[in-house]
Amino acid sequence: MPPGYRYRRRAFCRAAFPALALSIGALGTAGAAPGPALTLYSGQHPQVVHMLTQAFTRETGVAVRVHTGEGPEIAQQLLREGAASPADVVFVENSPELVLLDEHHMLVPVAAATLARVPSRDNAPDGRWLGVLARQNVLAWNPAKISERELPRSLLDLALPQWKGKVAIAPSDADFLPLVGAVVHAEGKEKALAWLEGLRRNARLYQDDESVVAAVNRGSVATGIINNYYWARLRTELGAAGMHSRIAHFAPGDIGNLINISGAAVLVSSKHQAEAQRFVAFLVSAKAQEMLATSTVDYEYPLVSGVAANPLLTPWDDLHPPDISPAAMGDDRESAALLQQAGLL
Amino acid sequence: MQSRIAGRPPLALAATATIPAMLVLLPVGLTFSDALGPGFGRAMAALDRPLVGELLGNTVLLTVSTALIGMAIGTAAAVLVERCDLPGRRVFAMLAAAPFAVPAFIASYAWVSLDPEFEGFSGGLLVTVFAYFPLAYLPVAAALRGLDPALEDAAHTLGETPRGCFWRVILPQLRPAMLGGALLIALNALVEFGAFALMRFRTFTTEIYAAYQAGLGGVEVAALALVLLCLCFLCLAAESMLRRRRSYVRVGRGVRRPAATYRLGVWRLPAFAAMSALYALALGVPLGMIVFWLTRHGSAAVTPDEVSLPAVLDATATTIGLGAAAALFTIVLALPLGILSSRFDRSIFSGGVERSAWLAQGLPGIVIALALISVTVRHVPVLYQSVALLLIAYAVLFLPYALVGVRAALVQAERRLEEAGRSLGLGWFGAFVRITLPLAAPGLGAAAALVFVAVTTELTATLLLAPIGTETLAIRIWGDTSTLAFAAAAPYAAVLVAISLAASLFLARRFDVAAALHPVGR
After folding, report:
1. Which residues have CB under 8 Å from A305's CB, separation 6+?
2. Which of A43, A218, B112, B228 has the least CB density, counted as fewest CB within 10 Å?
C-alpha cells in the first residue's frame, strides 16, 4: 500500500460522513414547510397549475402543495386513500374522473355562487363538481402526407382498413378515455369495441397527445387524434414557420368533435373546507380565467362567459360538438376496460 | 474462510439481519397475493389478452438482443483494451464504466430529442446496449487480467498460432465472465422503464405504468407484474447457477507476469476508430445533446416558468439529500447481514436470509413501488407518501450493491485485531464498534457511494413514491421530457449526469468497480 493511500482514505471518510449528515439535515428541513397549506391533486398540466396556484397564493396567502399525475391515476389514488387522503381539492383534465369520485361519495357540493359562474350543463347535475375549462377533440393532419379531401367525416371512419398506418393515437393518455366513453354512449359497447379493434390495427401508438401532434407535424404519420390544446401548444413552441400540420374538425355533430370538460371538486375528506371552496371559486374567477386565456401556457376554452378564448383556438361557436353532456358520458371505468380488451392498453 | 467464528450468531444480530430480507420478500409476496389472491383463473384471464403476447415478445426480443449485442461489444472492447496494442488504451480503460453512469432514460432523452425516428425497438436497443455494455466489459476485462499466461505459453509451444490461441485458449476461459455479463445486461434491460417509455417501446414495465395511469389496478396490474417478476427471477437463477460453476483459476500463485500483447497490425487504426465511435455514441451523444439543449431557450408553452437557478438548486439538494439518506439507511440495513455472512458459520437460517436479500437484484422498481403503495395505503397510513417509504424502496432496490461493499469491507478488516479486542475484555458489539467498524470504514464509504449514485439516478420508484411536493432531478427530467420540453429538461439532466459521472469516476479510480457491479451471492 503506498504511504499516502491510507491517509487519503481517511480524509475521504472524514469528509464524506459530515457531508452525509449535513445533507440528511437539509432534507429534514426541506420537508417541513411552515404554515397551513391546501393539497391539490392535479391531472392538469403542471404549467397551468403552477400559474394558478401562484396567483391564488398571492391573493389569499394560502399555500398550495401539488401532487401531479394522469387524471385516472389520481382518481384511483383518491379512491384507495379514501377518508385518509391528504387531498383537499382535485383538478383534472376530463370529467369522467370527477363522475367516478362523485359516484363513490367522495365530493362535497361546490358553493352555489361558484357553480353559477359556468353553464350548468358543464357542472355536475348534483353540483358536486365544477367545470372550469374546455378542450375539443380534433384531427391533426399533415398536408404533405394526405390531402384535405381524404380527411374523414367521422371519427369512426378511422377504424376502416384504408386508414392503416395513417393515424396516430395515444390510448394511455387520459384525454383518450372520454372519447371512448362518448363512442360507447352513442354507438353502444359492441360497436365501440369493434371501433377500437380497428384502431388497434390501423394506428401508430404514442405515449401522449404531445407526441402524437409532434409526430404528425414532422410527417411521421399523416393524421393524429388529439385535443386541440396540443396543436396550439406546439404552434407556440415552434412558431408559425415550424408548423407543417393543420387542424381538422369532423363533420358537424360527429362524435369526434367531443368537448372534454376539465373540472375541479372539493373532497369530503378535506380538513380545509373553506380554503378548498375558495380555491375552486378562484378557478372560475374572471381574473383566473382571463389569466389563462391570455397566457402562453394554456390552450383551453374558458367556461366563464365573457372571457375570450386564446386566438390560436377555433372560435367556440364554430365547434359543432355532439350533443353529449359530461354527466351523460359517465365515468371511464368501462372505457379503460374496453381499451384493454382491444389490446390498446 | 478463517475469519469466521464457529458458532451461532447472537440473537439480536440474527433478528436485525432478517429485517432487510423481510423488506425484500414483502413486495414479492404482495405481488403474488395480489395477482393470485382472487384465483388462478382470474389471473390467467387478465393475462389472456392480445397485448400481453405482444409485450412478452417485445420484452424478450429486446432483452435477448441487448444481452447478446452488449456482450459482444463489451467483450471485444475489453480484449482490445486489455490485450491489444490499441492506441490510447489507457484512456479507453478509464472511460470503460462511464457509459453506465449515464442513466438510460437520459440517453433515451438525448436520442429522441436528436431525432424522434429513433422511437421504437431500434431506439430502445440502441440506448440499452450503449448504457449496459460496460456490465459485460468490466467482468471480461477483470477475467482477462486474471488469466494465467502459462496456458497461452503452453499453447504456443504446442504450435498454436496467436490467432488460434485467442479463439481456442483465451476466449473459452472468458466464457463465464461473458455469460455473467450478458445476464446482468438482460436483468437491467428487463427492469428498465424510463428509457423504453421515452422511446415509446412497449415492455412490461411501461405497460404496468400505463395501466396504473389509466386507473386500472388489482389483478390486471399485479398479473403483469408477476410475469415480469418471473422473467427477472429466471435471469437471476441462471446467473447464480453460472457463478457456482465458474472455476477458471490461475494455477500457480507466483509472480504476476503480464500476458503478451497482441499486435493489431493493419487493424490498429480501424480498431481505434471503432472504439472511438463506440464511446462517441455511448457518451458523446447524451452529453452533446444535453449541452445542445442547454443553449436553447424553451418557449413558455412547454417550459414551466419555474425553470430557474433556484429550482435547479432545489432539485439538486433534494436529490443529494435523498441519495445520502438512502445510502446511510441501506448500509445500516446491510451491516447486520454482512456481519452474519462474513463472521459466523453458515446455517440454513443465515443462508436463507442472505439469499432473500440477493433476490432484490431481480426486483423491478415499478413492482416494488406499487407493492409498497398498496400495503401502506391499506395498513400503514403513517408511512404512506412519506420520505421514509421512499427510503425503504431505495433500500430494497439497492441492498445488493450495499451488501457487496459491506461484505468486502468486513472481510478485509483484520479478524485478529477484533479477537485481540475481545481477549482484552470487549464484548462482541464493543469490539465491532471500536475495532471492526473503523477498519471497514473506507469500504463502507465506497458501498455508500455506490448506493448514492444508484439512488440519484433512479426514476421509477422515485416517480411513484416521492411525497407530494418533492421534486428530484430525475422527476423534473421525466416530467419535461415526457411532454417533449427538451430545453427545460437540460439543466436538470446536466446536473444529474455530472453527479453520476463524477461519483462513478471517483469510485472507479479508487475501488474495484467490477467487483461491485458484479455482486457475488455465495
Report:
1. A119
2. A218
